[in-house]
# Entry
Amino acid sequence: MAADAVYGLPPRELVEPSAGAAQLSPLIPGSESLEAVPDQSLESLTILAPPGTVERRYVLAQGLRALKIGGTMMVLAPKAKGGSRLAKELKAFGLEVAEDARRHHRICEVVRPAEPDIAEALAAGAPRLSQDLGLWTQPGVFSWDRIDPGTALLLGRLPPQTGVGADFGCGLGYLAHGVLASSAVTGLTLIDIDRRAVDCASRNVNDPRAKVVWADVRHGQPALSDLDFVVMNPPFHDGGAEDRALGAAFIAEAARVLRHGGKLLMVANRHLPYERPLADSFGAKVKLLAEEGGYKLYEARR
Ligand SMILES: C[S@@+](CC[C@H](N)C(=O)[O-])C[C@H]1O[C@@H](n2cnc3c(N)ncnc32)[C@H](O)[C@@H]1O
# Structure
């Protein structure tokens, strides 16, 4: 393990992590895991803090756990996405905080004391088995404490699938559960960019037909081809900014991996104009199956 590490991709004009710094973000496939960094092993850590409060405090606490006593932690976040609360949150761990403001970000620097007060934040953000969901989950993962209404719509209308398929952006694996309820499904590849989701889905979908992969759907899945079906509730936020290109990339990759006659079932927020990317990839073989509660459910045939 390198002595220096970085969590996320902080803007270069604000901080420049050291050249050999290990990447620890769960949203960058192939990164090392922050949780797996041994206690008190890092000299320095730079964190682009996530926007969710429980998730952010957990990441900061994990960072402090992994730092050597006397090691430095630089934390930054856009002011409107948790940045304005950073200094207070760090002080609550018993730290002295040097704070700076630049380009709509708050930037805090701290030195790890011998015994930071991090136990509560570590527990609050840890993976857990939710009794309500009946699933392993973790704050920070998409819809971590409730079933997304779009997913519920897709599941409620999902005809039993047959053959080999994929679930793009699988999250905790709730949709995959529904798909695998059909005994005619012989294989299902679940893909997500979030390692925490992938870890939870691997525990939640305990089925020999399922394979869970930590990957970015936009980069293509060379191992997938000739699939009978793809299900997806594509992401509509990328790094916080609404990004239709992300959904369009999911649609294009679904079209690429499906066999001729294979089927895409996709749910999306009603206000997102996916008709064009669907038509670009599937021509006229696109049907609107349902429109409910702010969501649209599409079926597209290859
Ligand atoms: C709207 S959520 C749906 C999650 C899950 N299928 C469900 O229905 O609850 C979209 C998922 O896509 C994942 N995701 C976002 N960008 C991705 C990408 N480029 N490649 C793979 N997964 C991605 C997110 O981590 C998130 O879990």
